Amino acid sequence: MGWWLAFWGLLAVGFLAKGPIAWVPIGMTGWTAARMERGKRPGALEWALGVVVMLAVAGVWGIPAMMQTHGEFAVVGLGKHVVLRSVSPLEGHGAKTWQSYLMTFPLYGVTIWPSFFPWSLWLPAAALELWRRRKQWRLEETYLVTGIVLVFGIFTLSRTKLPHYTLPAFPYLALLLAAWWGKDRERAFQWAAGGMAALGLVLPLVIFPLASPYFVSQRLYEEAAPWLTPGMELGTIGYHEPSLVWLFRKKIDGFETSMNWKLADEWMREPGPKVCVMPVDQLPRVFRTLDPGWRVVTARGLKVANARRAELAAVIKGAAD
Q: Which of 12, 24, 166, 303 could cross-link 57 (Cys pair, CB 3.0–4.6 Å)?
């Protein structure tokens, strides 16, 4: 009973944290159960009650969130970031035509090499050994392989693609690889694990601080920082990057409002201090006339997500305006 409650309850928590992809274990357990002896399979009533428990736990937080945001929790969290990402390339991450979309199918077969490095070096040998004895898989191997296939399959079919989308499958890959590893490869594991641990410390403590001055969000924040105030609202047009929000929230309390360029001028002229960020080439279209009291700062640099060059402008309206 305890494991049953933990399974369905954690699926609810996972859904609230990361959306429907957290429900992949339902497919994993379902396919694994289908391969079990009939007398050992979970009953239909257990599954139905589990789904009810899962939805009830998710509703404890999800329903108040829906009410508090007037439905935006579903519109943005599910409509935009789940449905829209699945059927169209969002924020330029994906193929625009059906021909180029079909060409992206092998993408995650390529990105797994750097993203799962160095363990990806041993994946071909482990996969080959697993394939050779595919008719003698243990139930736990069936469970893990099903999860890997589901995650990679779902995101391969999705129109929006980013290398980190397949991360939910990495624990399953790691468990399969660990079962294959064996004592004879223990020294190789120690060296690889030690190297990755060192790299994990060097990246955030050395590399990222050295690279941050080259990123456009960091440069724009440094230019705008002297005029940012705690009560200021942040608006963005045609540019959305988490690093921008994290940086600006060092000085301001308001969250980001992503908007259409047609609404920006009216939003900016509403009472209260505001800062509106956009690509520099959008500035003349967004604001045909700038209030003399507003400040405009610009910055050039690289985007964190794709290392492409960008030039941004921040229009700042102070508390007294």
A: 12
Q: Tens digit of pLDDT for each residue in 103-115?
A: 888 888 899 998 8
pLDDT value, residue 321 = 47
Instruction: Report the distance separating Cα 75 and Cα 157, nearest Å.
Output: 22
Of 155, 194, 179, 169, which is closest to residue 115 (Cα–Cα)?
169
How far apart are the C-alpha atoms of 296 and 317, rounded to whole Å?
9
What per-residue string of b and e applies to 208-222 under the rule 16 or more CB within 10 Å gives b? eeeeeeebbbbbbbe
Q: Determine which helix (DSSP H) or strand (DSSP E) holds 197, and give its type and residue range.
A: helix 186-202
Per-residue pLDDT tens digits for 285-303: 888 888 888 899 999 998 8
Domain ranges for the chain, please list them.
1-87, 215-317
Of 240, 192, 227, nearest to 321 by C-alpha is 227
Structure token digits, residue 89? 């390339």
Q: In CATH, what number does 215-317 get?
A: 3.40.50
pTM of the model: 0.69
